[in-house]
Amino acid sequence: MNRVFGALVGLALFAPVPAEAAPKAPTSKPPASKATTAKKAPTRSAAPKARAKAPAPQERARSAAAARVIDWVASSQDNRALPYVVIDKTAAVAFLFDAKGTYIADAPVLIGIALGDDATPGIGSKNLAEIGPAEKTTPAGRFLAKFGLAAGRQKVLWVDYATSVALHPIPTGNPKEKRRDRILSATPDDNRITFGCINVPLAFYNKAVSPLFQKKGGYVYILPDTKSLEAAFPPLHAFPGRAFADTALQDATAPTEPTL
């Protein structure tokens, strides 16, 4: 009996014990970390970048004649505290300066068809149809220019009022002349097309010339085709010399229209 009881006790010692059920994973989500729950600090806006300065205007090359006249005007103050523009007919370029002689801008120009540095006497009283080919010159010299009205109440910068020479934007009346194409061409060879007036790009006229010349006018220096610089600008004989008297603006009968 004791043996049987001992055997049963031995079997009980070796009986398998059911393993404990593994604890279930918690169903609730773990608390979010501070990094995810904390409000994002407002980011500082980047400091506004400083605006880049506009590049200085790229100036066209000056011929020796243009450089000499420009230097003379600045050194002698021949412009008399007024803005001025120097027209190089050979290069078909206009150089614009303010009253202090500071370079402002330059632009290509269209000029008279004919070579020559003098205006035909009485040309200011002629109609355009009456002007012969040899008369279509842009006169050389120093001119006191002011804004005024032309035919059709058109406002122009009168360079030489007596001979109907004005500086104004390119007219659009005759597309066959292709004036816009001519002024945009790479060479000055085709820039002679006008009756004697000086045509300039509209932007140059409105944004550069007009603001400077609007109040008191200014000077226009037109370099010669065939004359010497001294013949066109006598003070150059003794540069730097005394500036010569202003070219008077004629207040007599107004010409019917600028020569274009």
Keywords:
two-stranded parallel ribbon, single chain, L,D-transpeptidase catalytic domain-like, alpha/beta, 20% helix, 6 helices, disordered N terminus, globular, 260 residues
State Rg: 43 Å
**Large-scale geometry:** globular
Task: Briefly note the CATH topology name of the domain at 64-238.
Answer: L,D-transpeptidase catalytic domain-like
Q: What is the succession of H and E elements? A: HHHEEEEEEEHEEHEH
Summarize model confidence as the mean pLDDT.
81
Spatial order of strands in the largest sheet? 3-2-1-10-5-6-7-9
Second CATH tier, the architecture of the domain at 64-238 = Beta Barrel
CATH class division of the domain at 64-238:
Mainly Beta
Q: Into which percent range does the helicity of residues fall?
A: 10-25%
Per DSSP E runs of 2 or more residues, the count of β-strands stands at 10
Uncertain segments:
1-28, 32-38, 241-254
Count of DSSP-assigned helices = 6
Strand content: 15-25%
